[in-house]
Every structure is written in structure tokens, then in C-alpha cells.
Automatic annotation (TrEMBL):
Xref: SMART domains: PKS_ER (SM00829)
Span of domain Enoyl reductase (ER): 13-360
Cofactor: Zn(2+)
GO biological process, one term: formaldehyde catabolic process
UniProt-listed Pfam families: ADH_N, ADH_zinc_N
GO cellular component: cytosol
Similarity-based family: Belongs to the zinc-containing alcohol dehydrogenase family.
Transmembrane segments: none
Protein's name in the database: Aryl-alcohol dehydrogenase
């Protein structure tokens, strides 16, 4: 079938809205009519090839839509189901079998290798193959994805805004709830108040943390962090972050989430920890040098990397939606919608800090 898709043909090339051919779903695959797709910095990383993938490629990895058709062997989905499309994983390696699909041994290939689970793509243009991102390429009017990617969601929630739960929101919230698991009366600092960081703030507000400290350089984002549950905010352009955190907590935080990937901020997050503190690094950026002896060993600090919030999407995303429906996880406050034709406006606004989480809609 012919679809409209956001295609990148070359490194740092423009995102072009083009017609491409989408093949029928194969065994254990599903055709989804896309309703809304979040834009994440990972998409831009692929566009500029900071994250290397085959080219050309159709972008999009935070999709949400309605099942249009199922391929052979599909039993858990049927036409009309509402779904969120998350990351791809093999389901057979040790990490997957132990309940950690975000640590899948094939994660890189399946999400950035340009193919679906069977090693091929469903996308073509002028008879030539076009690569798939995250096994979905959901910045398009339709997508074909393996059942592993798909999460069935309730139909009483606005499907348009659910796409970002698939990656950015899942990453921030899952890092707090699945990996750090803050203890009663503990303190946490979140570095960076983009979509991932603010999701971490909202998740921390669901835990028994006493202090939730949000750090950013944008006062508007810090104000939103306060609205979403932060007990304290710090503008790192105006204040010595580590000193202020020590002042608030009386010696450092128990936990930190570093979502910026900026090397100096990574170091700040480590230095903000108290003895035996843990920082989860989820931001991707430049190289960072850590002095193992000075920064980690004497204070017994721990630095962990976390991918996709160490989540099982089929279990975790419905829980986030339940908390959203109860008013306890208001992620919609981060979202602004844009029509597909205005995708470049959405990206420009995100890069300028005007929009935290843009979502592309396909209703036209």
C-alpha cells in the first residue's frame, strides 16, 4: 500500500514527506493506522547520523494508532485495537527471558539496524528498500510492526497523546520506578527537565521520596517541574548545583537521574550524591571522564546506565496510563500537537525549547 512518511535520505538531510510503499504484515506482524507519534531527540540523532543507521530511513519510534490488519499467527491483537508501539526486542535471549527486554542482546540491530525482527524491511521507494527505525517507522500514516513492539491500551484515553509513552516517558518514569526504586524518606535529583526528566519527576512523585529536586537552565521548565511534583528546583545557570543540593538535603541525594547527556552535568549528578548514592544515566551525549577513586570508591557511589527505563512495555505502559487516568501522572502537560505537514515546525520548536514533547498527528 502507498503511505505518506517522513524520510531522511542522507546524513543531516532534510526530513521529506514522501510517498513510499508499505508491504503487507508478515507472520506475527500487525498493520497499524497511525494516529499520533511523538518526536524524540533519538529521531534527530538518526537524521544527523549521531546514531548510525542505514539510509534512507523512515523516522518515528513513539507511535500510537489503531490496528488495521493482522498477519498470520497473530492472536493477541485484532482490527480496531488501540495500541502504542514501543521498542523492538528478540524475546529469546537471556535478558529478554529474564524480564529485561530493554537489555536485549539484539537491541541495537532490531532498533537501529533498519529492519524488523526477521531481518527485512517492509518499506520501499521506487523499488528500493527503505530502512525501518525501532521496527516501526511510525512518522508515517501507517506502520507495520512485530507483536513484540505492540502494547494494547484502553480505548477510553485520547490515543493521540499516548505515543511518547513508548520511549521518552517510559525511559524517565521507568528509571525511577523500575531501576532506582526510591526508599521511604529518600531524596532524588533529576538533571534536565525535558520529556525524560519531567517523566522522572512525575514518577518520583509516585514514590515515598521526601525531596524531589529538578535541575535545568530554563525557568519555565522548572516551573512545570514544580507543578508536576518537584519539591525544589535549581537553575544551574544561576546557582552552584552541587552546593545547593547539599544544602537542601544535608549532605547529598540518595538518587539522581541524569537525562541531558552533557558531560559536565553527568559529573554534577555524581557529585550531588551522598555516600552510597546511585545515579542513573539515561542521556546520550559526549564522552565523560570520571575519576573512579575520587568520585566513586571512597563515597561508595554507583553509576548505572539505563535503557528504556528497564521496562517491560506491555506491563509498564498500561500502568502509566492508569495513573494518568487517576490524575497522578499528568504527562499530557508536556505535550503539544502538530499536524504532519508541520513536522519541521515541531522539530524547530523542540530544539528551541519552546515545546517539550511534540506529537505529530495524522487526522488530516
Amino acid at each position: 500500500m502507498e503511505i505518506q512518511a517522513a524520510v531522511v535520505h542522507e546524513k543531516a538531510g532534510n526530513i521529506a514527506l514522501e510517498k513510499v510503499e508499505l508491504d503487507e504484515p508478515k507472520e506475527n506482524e500487525v498493520l497499524v493506522k497511525i494516529v499520533g507519534t511523538g518526536i524524540c531527540h533519538t529521531d534527530l540523532g538518526v537524521q544527523h547520523q549521531h546514531i548510525q543507521t542505514p539510509l534512507p530511513i523512515v523516522l518515528g519510534h513513539e507511535g500510537a494508532g489503531i490496528v488495521e490488519k493482522v498477519g498470520p499467527g497473530v492472536t493477541e491483537f485484532e482490527p480496531g485495537d488501540h495500541v502504542v508501539i514501543s521498542f523492538s526486542y528478540c524475546g529469546k535471549c537471556r535478558s529478554c527471558l529474564e524480564g529485561h527486554p530493554a537489555a536485549c542482546e539484539n537491541l541495537g540491530k532490531l532498533n537501529f539496524g533498519g529492519c524488523l525482527l526477521d531481518g527485512t524491511t517492509r518499506l520501499k521507494k521506487d523499488g528500493k528498500e527503505v530502512a525501518t527505525l525501532f521496527g516501526q517507522s511510525s512518522l508515517a500514516t501507517y506502520a507495520v510492526s512485530h507483536v513484540n513492539n505492540l502494547v494494547k491500551v484502553d480505548k477510553d484515553v485520547d490515543l493521540t497523546i499516548l505515543g511518547p509513552l513508548a520511549c521518552g516517558i517510559q525511559t524517565g518514569a521507568g528509571t525511577v520506578l523500575n531501576k532506582l526504586k526510591p526508599a521511604f524518606g529518600s531524596s532524588i535529583a533529576v538533571f534536565g527537565c525535558g520529556g525524560v526528566g519531567l517523566s522522572a519527576v512525575m514518577a518520583a512523585n509516585l514514590t515515598p521520596c521526601l525531596n524531589i529536586i529538578a535541575v535545568d537552565i530554563n525557568d519555565d521548565r522548572l516551573a512545570l517541574a514544580k507543578e508536576l511534583g518537584a519539591t525544589h528546583t535549581i537553575n544551574s545557570k544561576k546557582t552552584d548545583v552541587v552546593q545547593e543540593i547539599y544544602s537542601i538535603t544535608g549532605g547529598g541525594v540518595d538518587y539522581a537521574v541524569e537525562s541531558t547527556g552533557v558531560p559536565e552535568v553527568v559529573l554534577q549528578s555524581i557529585h550531588s550524591l551522598k555516600s552510597r548514592g546511585v545515579v542513573a544515566v539515561v542521556g546520550v551525549g559526549g564522552k565523560t571522564s570520571i575519576h573512579i577513586h575520587d568520585d566513586l570508591i571512597p563515597p561508595n557511589r554507583t553509576v548505572v546506565g539505563v535503557v528504556e527505563g528497564d521496562a517491560i512495555p506491555k506491563l509498564f505502559i498500561p500502568k502509566l496510563i492508569d495513573f494518568y487516568k487517576k490524575g497522578k501522572f499528568p504527562f499530557d502537560k508536556m505535550i503539544k500537537t502538530y499536524s504532519f505537514k508541520n513536522i519541521n515546525d515541531a522539530i524547530n520548536d523542540m530544539n528551541a525549547g519552546k515545546t517539550i514533547k511534540p506529537v505529530i498527528t495524522f487526522s488530516e
